[in-house]
Amino acid sequence: MKPIFKKALIIGVGLIGGSLALSARAKGVVREIVGLGRSQRSLQRALELGVIDAVAKDLKEGLQGTDLVVLAMPVGKFEEWALALSQHTLEGVTVTDVGSVKGNLVIKLEEILKGKAVFVGGHPIAGKEKSGVEASQATLFEGALCILTPTPQTPPESLKRVQSLWEGVGSKVSIVDPFLHDKLLALVSHLPHMVAYALVNAVLDADVGGHDPIFYSGGGFRDFSRIAASSEEMWADICLQNRDALVDMLNLYQEKLSELKEKIINGNREALCQTFHRAKEMRGKIA
Fold it and tell me: Is the pLDDT of residue 234 over 80?
C-alpha cells in the first residue's frame, strides 16, 4: 500500500512503540522509522532487532524530514516532550500518542503545540504485561481496538490520516471524546490493574501461620494477578494522570465489595448466587 506517512519519529521504543514500528513497516504504512528516547541501550537494541531504521541522537536530528511523531513513553513525560517539540519547526507534522490517559492531557498538548503541529490523541488497546522493545511484535494491533480522541480543534484531514495509520496496522478504530475515554478506561482497564495490585499485596502481607500462600495458588490466582506484572512506572503515571475518574471507579468497586461482604456475613446464599450469576452472564459475553 502507499505509505500514509513518509517518516515517523517514535519517542519511546518499548512494547507499544516498537510494535507500531514493526507493524507500520511490515504493512507499508510508514516508509522510514526513527527512534528516540532516554535509554540508548534500548534504542540500540531496537536497531539490532530491526524494529527501527535509525536512532536519532537528539530531537533536532530526529525531526528532519519527519511528518509523524508518536509519543510512546509513560504519560507522565508527555508534556515535557511536547514542550521540547514546540521549540522546533514542525511544519506539516502530525503528533499522536499511545497513552492510556486523555482528557485534560489532550487539551494541554494541544495548547503546547498550537500553531506548531496538529495533535491527535490515540490509545491502542493492545498491551501485554511484558514491557520493553524485546516484547514488540508486528501482529500486536491486528484486530485490536484503537481509540482516537479528537477535539473541536482537530483538523478532519489529520484525524483521517491517523485513523488510516491504525487501520493500516490492523486495528479497529473508535472515535471517543477525550474525557469520556478516561471514564471508560478507568472502569475497564485502570480499575482492574488496581484490583490486581491490591490482591497481590494482600497475599504478600497476609499472615497464614508461616506458610507461603503462593505455594498453594492455582490457575485462578495466576490468571487474575497476571496484570500485576505490568510496568510500575507506567501505571503510577496513569493513576496520577487519571486520578479523578479512577478514584470514582475505586469508590464504586469498594461499594460492590462491601455489598458482597455483607451478603457473606448475613449468610445470604440466594443473594450471593444472584450476584455471581449476573457477573457470570456478563463475562460470558466477552470474547
Answer: yes
pLDDT at 129: 63
What is the SS3 string spanning the chain? CCCCEEEEEEECCCHHHHHHHHHHHHCCCEEEEEEECCCHHHHHHHHHCCCCCEECCCHHHHCCCCCEEEECCCHHHHHHHHHHHCCCCCCCCEEEECCCCCHHHHHHHHHHHCCCCEEECEEEECCCCCCCHHHCCCCCCCCCEEEECCCCCCCHHHHHHHHHHHHHCCCEEEECCHHHHHHHHHHHHHHHHHHHHHHHHHHHHCCCCCCCHHHHCCHHHHHHHHHHHCCHHHHHHHHHHCHHHHHHHHHHHHHHHHHHHHHHHCCCHHHHHHHHHHHHHHHHCCC
pTM of the model: 0.91
Of 92-106, 129-143, 210-224, 259-273, give the lowest mean pLDDT range: 129-143
Q: How confident is the model at residue 42 (pLDDT cuts 50, 70, 90)?
A: confident
Superfamily of domain 180-284: 6-phosphogluconate dehydrogenase C-terminal like domain (1.10.3660.10)
Task: Please give the pLDDT value at position 41.
Answer: 85
User: What is the spatial order of strands in the sheet that 94-97 belongs to?
Assistant: 54-55, 30-36, 5-11, 68-71, 94-97, 118-120
Question: Looking at domain 5-176, what is its CATH homologous superfamily?
Answer: NAD(P)-binding Rossmann-like Domain (3.40.50.720)
pLDDT of amino acid 110: 97
For cell 508527555, the residue is 78
Residue 96's DSSP bridge partners are 70, 120
Res 131 pLDDT > 90: no
Q: Name residue 124's beta-bridge partners.
A: 146
Backbone φ and ψ of 8, nearest 5°: -110, 135
